[in-house]
Amino acid sequence: MIEVILPAPLRELARISGQIMLDVAQPLTQRSVLDALERDYPMLRGTTRDQRSGKRRAYLRFFACGKDLSHAEPDAPLPEAVASGAEPFVILGAMSGG
Amino acid sequence: MASVRLLVGTRKGAFILHADAARKKWKIDGPLFGGWEIYHLAGSPADPDRLYASQVTNWFGQVIQRSDDGGKTWNPVGNEFTYAGEVGTHQWYDGSQRPWEFKRVWHLEPSPTEPDTVYAGVEDAALFHSADGGQSWRELDGLRHHTSGPDWMPGAGGMCLHTILLNPQRPERITVAISSAGAFRSDDRGVNWKPINRGLHSEQIPDPHAEVGHCVHRLAVHPSRPDVLFMQKHWDVMRSDDGGDNWREVSGNLPSDFGFPIAVHTHEPETIYVVPIKSDSEHYPPDGKLRVYRSRSGGQEWEPLTKGLPQRHCYVNVLRDAMAVDSIDPCGVYFGTTGGQVYASADSGDSWQAIAKHFPTVLSVEVQTLP
C-alpha cells in the first residue's frame, strides 16, 4: 500500500477525510498510481490528467521524496521509499496569487 | 403556493437562493463547490429536483455535478468530453490552424421533457448530448464539422458555445450560438447544421456580412413563439421572425447596443430585456448607471429601468448567462453582476432589489418556478 496526498479541492470532490492508501499494481509508476487512484475514486477521473492522452494537467505537480517528478515519464519507476510506504506520493496544485 | 429557486454560478462556487411567490425575502444557501468556477447551473423543466452544474478550474479541469433532490445533495457524473471523429483544426488568432481542444462547459440545457437528457455547450465550441443524466456525453459533431468550422476563431473570452435553444414545437430543431462564429441551426436533431446569420453586420470582421464570424453574445426566445428569436450581438440587438433565417436590427433608442444577456418576459412575448454596456473595451454601463432596458414592442423602442439599481459610480458588467425570468405573474426578472451583486425584480423590471451584494463574480443566473 502506498500513501497519496491530494490537494484540498480534490479531497473535497472525492469526499476524503482521512489518509489515502492505495493498493497499486506493480511496477510502481505515476501511471499505475493514478490508475489506482481513479479506480478507487472514479470521480477524480480527468482531474489530474487528461482522460484520453493521460497527460498531466498543466497546473498540477507530482512530488515524492523532496523531488519534483512532474516531468518524469509516466511509466518511469517511482522511488523505493514511495513503494515501501515510507514516503507519500504528493499531488498538488500550482500556486496562484491575485 | 408557488416559490422560486435561483441558481447562481460564480467564479468561486455556486449559490442557491430561495423565496416565496412574493420574492421579497430570500434565503441563501452556499457556497457549493467552493473555490471552483461554476459556469452554469440548470434545472430540468421535466423534473425540477433534477439539477446539473458545470464545475471547472484551470487546475483540475471539468466536473459535471448532478442533484436529484433540488440541490440539497450533489454527485459528480461524467466529465469525459471527447470530440468525435477526426478532431480537425480551427483558426487561431495569428491566422494559423490549431487543433480543437476541450476546455470547459459553458452552458447546460436540460431537455424540456426528459430529465436524463441534457445538452452541453463547450469551449472549444462544440455541442454535446447526454441521455443518461450526464453519465456519458456524445458530441453532435455535425456542427463542428460544418464546412465553415476551420474558419471559426475564438473571441477574447474563448471560442465558446454558450446558447442552446430547444424548440418545444419542433423537437428536431436545435439552435445554438458561438462566440465568435455566429448562430447555427439543425433541423434533424443535431446531425446537420447551417449558419443562420443573414442580416448580421459586424465591422470587426473583414466582410461585415460574412456567413460566419459574428460574435453572437446570447439568443433568447419565448417558448410559445419559437420562430421569433432575439439576439444580443457583440454590438447590435437583433430580431428574427423566421427561426433565424433573416435578422434585422432592433437596437432603436438604446444608449449603447453593446451588451451580453438578453431575456424575454414569460407572459409577454414582445417584452424583452437587455443591459447596455458602454463598449467592447469598456465593459461597464454607460455613465456609471446600471440600467436594464425593456422593450414592450419586441425591440426598437426601449425604456430604462432604474428603480432600485445603482445610478452613480457603477462599473460592473452583466455576463451573457447571468439573466433569467421566472414564470410567476407578474414576471420575475433576475440578473447577476461581475461585482457579485444579484438583483431581483418581482414586477417585470419596474423595480429592483439587491438580494445578494457580495458574491464572487457572477457567471450565470437561472431561476426555477416551483409549484
Description:
Helices cover 21% and strands 19% of the residues of chain A. Chain A is an alpha+beta fold and 98 residues long. Chain A has one domain (2-93): Ubiquitin-like (UB roll), CATH 3.10.20. A 5-stranded mixed β-sheet of chain A has the order 2-1-5-3-4, with helices on one face. Chain B has a single domain (3-370), classed as Methylamine Dehydrogenase, Chain H, CATH 2.130.10. Helix content of chain B is 0%, strand content 39%. Chain B has strands at residues 3-10, 13-20, 27-32, 37-43, 51-57, 61-67, 75-76, 89-91, 97-99, 104-110, 118-123, 126-130, 138-139, 160-166, 174-179, 182-186, 194-195, 216-221, 229-233, 237-240, 248-249, 262-264, 272-274, 292-295, 303-305, 323-325, 333-336, 342-345, 353-356, 362-370. In chain B, the strands form 8 sheets. A 4-stranded antiparallel β-sheet of chain B has the order 3-2-1-30, with no helix packed on it. A 4-stranded antiparallel β-sheet of chain B has the order 4-5-6-7, with no helix packed on it. In chain B, a hairpin with a 2-residue loop joins strand 1 and strand 2 (13-20).
What is the element layout, followed by pairings?
The complex is a heterodimer of chains A (98) and B (371).
Chain A lengths: L1 E4 L2 H6 L6 E3 L7 H11 L19 E5 L2 E2 L11 H4 L5 E5 L5
Parallel strand pairs in A: 1-5
Antiparallel strand pairs in A: 1-2, 3-4, 3-5
Chain B lengths: L2 E8 L2 E8 L6 E6 L4 E7 L7 E7 L3 E7 L7 E2 L12 E3 L5 E3 L4 E7 L7 E6 L2 E5 L7 E2 L20 E7 L7 E6 L2 E5 L7 E2 L20 E6 L7 E5 L3 E4 L7 E2 L12 E3 L7 E3 L17 E4 L7 E3 L17 E3 L7 E4 L5 E4 L7 E4 L5 E9 L1
Antiparallel strand pairs in B: 1-2, 1-30, 2-3, 4-5, 5-6, 6-7, 8-9, 10-11, 11-12, 12-13, 14-15, 15-16, 16-17, 18-19, 19-20, 20-21, 22-23, 23-24, 24-25, 26-27, 27-28, 28-29
